[in-house]
């Protein structure tokens, strides 16, 4: 166990894990071939891939794919991820912001939950 382990809160750890998962999802899959025919299977593959990582509670991916084949672009992907670290849940999302021409990754909620 490292020296900082006890000084970092579960809230901080949950938010850190959320950021790692959002960045991983975005950078790992941008450029993946996609079309309207393969959109659903790619969404499911991304969800399952990210779900394999520690602390992931849920993943939902939506891809806006055209009818023709292309490489997945930042403006085509929307994703929501929920992390559960001990009794802290952190939720966040990736959404392309047209006015900023940027794929924004943000924290939507962090709260204490009870595990049953």
TrEMBL record:
Substrate binds at residues 17, 105. It is an enzyme of class 4 (lyase). Its EC number is 4.1.2.25. It holds the Pfam family DHNA. The keyword Nucleotide-binding does not apply. It catalyses: 7,8-dihydroneopterin = 6-hydroxymethyl-7,8-dihydropterin + glycolaldehyde. Residues 9-107 form the Dihydroneopterin aldolase MtpD C-terminal domain. Keywords: Lyase. CDD domains: HMA (cd00371). GO terms for molecular function: dihydroneopterin aldolase activity; metal ion binding. Homotetramer. Belongs to the archaeal dihydroneopterin aldolase family. Catalyzes the conversion of 7,8-dihydroneopterin (H2Neo) to 6-hydroxymethyl-7,8-dihydropterin (6-HMD). This is Dihydroneopterin aldolase.
């Amino acid at each position: 166990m490292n020296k900082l382990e006890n000084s970092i809160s579960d809230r901080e750890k949950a938010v850190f894990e959320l950021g790692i998962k959002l960045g991983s999802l975005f950078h790992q899959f941008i450029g993946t071939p996609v079309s309207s025919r393969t959109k659903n299977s790619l969404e499911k593959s991304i969800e399952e891939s990210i779900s394999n990582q520690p602390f992931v509670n849920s993943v939902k991916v939506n891809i806006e794919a055209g009818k023709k084949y292309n490489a997945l672009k930042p403006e085509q992907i929307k994703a929501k991820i929920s992390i559960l670290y001990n009794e802290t849940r952190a939720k966040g999302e990736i959404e392309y912001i047209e006015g900023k021409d940027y794929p924004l990754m943000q924290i939507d909620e962090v709260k204490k939950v009870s595990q049953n």
